[in-house]
Amino acid sequence: MLKVDGLNVRYGKSHVVFDFSAEVKDGETLAVLGRNGAGKTTTIRGITGLLPGASGRVIVGGTDMSGWPAHRRTRRGLAYVPSGARCFPNLTVVENLDIASHANGDGWTWNKDRIWELFPRLESLRHNLAGGLSGGERQMLAVSRALMGNPRVMLLDEPTEGLAPVLVQSIAALLATLKSTGVSILLAEQNHQMALRVADRAAFIEKGRIVEVLPASRARDSEVLHRILGV
Ligand SMILES: Nc1ncnc2c1ncn2[C@@H]1O[C@H](COP(=O)(O)OP(=O)(O)O)[C@@H](O)[C@H]1O
Ligand SMILES: [Mg+2]
To answer: Which CATH number does the domain housing residue 203 bear?
Structure first.
């Protein structure tokens, strides 16, 4: 569903992501794991088309989007949820969903009723201002906003960032629910334990390079994690 081939990203003269290549199959969740500063965010933003210093091929559902501007990639099914779960704080939950809604021409459509079915908690908060939601609820809204664009692939950047440890569990549940919709997910995380609970495979990156790709069942092995991450 997503194929990234030979992605390189530079900020001016500084080369940050080196030859990132990966595939995410239909309905699969691929975790991109690595320490702070390893290049996770840069990799994701390189895939979205938001970084002028990115080169390489990005194919979504058979459509080669290489060189396309970000908004066109979004319209054709590539959704991006940045870390921090940005929403419009002065709009209600419903309003945030309404302005995120757009068709991608696939005829596979999300609407608010389907969102409420998936996340009943959001329905109970629908007339609340997004700015008043808790961190976990805001992440739920950010993911729902992305779904309203009818994505084939969702790029999620560190949904646990800035959340209290007690909320990490709720993010794992949120991701499991998201995965149940069948959307393909690329999940960047520093919290490898949480990510490996929901991922099917994991790509480990260090200093902007993939050092290992493993099935999640293997990556959960503490000896493997120790060897790769030194944890
Ligand atoms: N806008 C930028 N300009 C220059 N260097 C950047 C910029 N953003 C990130 N970097 C550098 O790129 C590297 C990877 O950063 P990032 O992708 O944010 O890592 P991660 O998301 O894994 O923490 C870091 O060394 C960081 O300092
Ligand atoms: Mg990051």
So the answer is: 3.40.50.300
187: which residues sit within 8 A by CB, 6+ positions away?
29, 30, 31, 32, 156, 159, 175, 195, 198, 199
**Taking CB atoms and a 6 Å cutoff, what residues make up the pocket around ligand 1?**
11, 14, 16, 34, 36-42
How many domains would you assign to the chain?
Answer: 1
Instruction: Determine the residue of 36, 42, 43, 47 to mutate for testing ligand 1's pocket, defined as the one with the most ligand atoms within 8 A of the Cβ atom.
Output: 42
The CA distance from 30 to 74, in Å, is 19
Domain containing 154: what range?
2-229
Report CA(35)–ligand 2 centroid distance (Å). Answer: 9
Where is 175: in which H helix or E strand? helix 165-180
pLDDT per position as a tens digit, 118-146: 999 999 999 999 999 999 999 999 999 99
Bridge-based pairing state of the strands 153-157 and 184-189: parallel
Nearest CA residue ID for atom 1, ligand 1: 11
pTM as predicted: 0.95
Tokens of 7: 């992605």
Which of 130, 128, 127 is closest to 141 using CA atoms? 130
For 18-30, how does the pLDDT look when each residue is reduced to its tens digit (9 = 90+)? 999 999 999 999 9
* Gap from CA of 102 to ligand 1 centroid (Å): 31
With beta carbons less than 8 A apart as the criterion, state whether 44 and 186 touch: yes
